[in-house]
Write a structure and sequence with these properties.
single chain, 2-enoyl-CoA Hydratase, Chain A, domain 1, 6-stranded mixed β-sheet, 3-stranded mixed β-sheet, 14% strand
Length: 287
């Protein structure tokens, strides 16, 4: 049985549930592998027309478990070989290939998001066909400030050039209502209704014949394919590796190992006052 996810099937809807709530469902190599296997199984399953991706706990996904990632990068610093960009690309591609299974699966996917969905969490969820969020959800890519570049170009396809630049060039957090307004997600609902509402939509889709779902999804997705989504994916993965190995990126790794990853992140985000830091975050919690 998987350690990081669990599966439920009901009326043609297969729920794949991230179940590491104490770790805010952050992404690890094990979660990557188990999620990939679950998505492959969903694609082949005769009892499944629609995939519903959801998560236990207060957060959908707070990104990569970067405490292990920064430690791994720090361990490489003592080696005689310089950074191997091709090896880095292959390693990160292994994660992205799993996320893209949501896109390239012939079956539609619905994601139900609560709480934090940031950094690697957006790399994952933005490949879903439809995203519904609880009113308390927060999206964003704060590592665009330092030590990262999105590995998915779905930011641009969903919200356009200027809005993608506005949020990625600042790393600012995006509350759920704003995410719905700009088209990053479909809609928001009260937190207590999220799972029920997302399941109802998934079941409504599952009322269609599977072949209709498959044809319509392929038809719509082909627009993005014709606009070069594959080449943008390659560039995003490469630039993400570069960002982690600039001088600023290496300094961030050293700081993370000296004072702890959480404290390093706090120092990065404090000047912006979001993602748990400063007045902007306190104001959102009060509202």
């Amino acid at each position: 049985m998987p350690d990081t996810i669990r599966i439920e099937v009901e009326d043609g809807v297969r729920s794949i549930i991230l179940c590491r709530p104490r770790e805010y469902n952050n992404i690890t190599p094990l979660l990557r592998d188990e999620l990939g296997a679950a998505l492959d199984e969903a694609e082949e399953a005769k009892d499944t027309k629609v995939v519903l991706l959801r998560a236990e706990g207060s957060a959908f996904c707070a990104g990569y478990g970067l405490d292990w990632s920064t430690r791994a990068q720090a361990d490489q610093s003592g080696r005689t070989r310089v950074w191997d960009s091709a090896a880095d690309y292959q390693a990160m591609s292994g994660f992205v290939r799993v996320y893209q299974k949501l896109w390239y699966s012939s079956k539609p996917s619905v994601a139900a998001v609560q709480g934090w969905c940031i950094c690697g969490g957006t790399d994952l969820v933005l490949w879903s066909d439809v995203i519904i969020a609880a009113e308390n959800a927060v999206f964003g890519y704060p590592t665009s400030r330092l030590w990262g570049v999105p590995t998915t170009a779905m930011w641009v396809y969903r919200i356009g050039f200027e809005k993608a630049k506005r949020y990625l060039l600042t790393g600012d957090e995006i509350p759920a209502a704003e995410a719905a307004r700009i088209g990053l997600i479909l809609e928001t609902v009260p937190e207590e209704r999220l799972q029920e509402h997302a399941m109802a939509l998934a079941k409504r889709m599952a009322m269609l014949p599977l072949n209709q779902l498959q044809m319509i999804k392929l038809y719509v997705n082909q627009v993005a394919e014709n606009m070069g989504i594959a080449s943008l994916r390659t560039l995003g993965i490469l630039f993400d590796g570069v960002a982690r190995h600039t001088q600023e990126g290496l300094d961030f790794v050293k700081l993370s190992n000296d004072i702890g990853f959480r404290e390093a992140v706090r120092r990065r985000d404090d000047p912006f006052g979001d993602y748990g830091s400063g007045s902007r975050s306190r104001r959102r919690k009060k509202d």
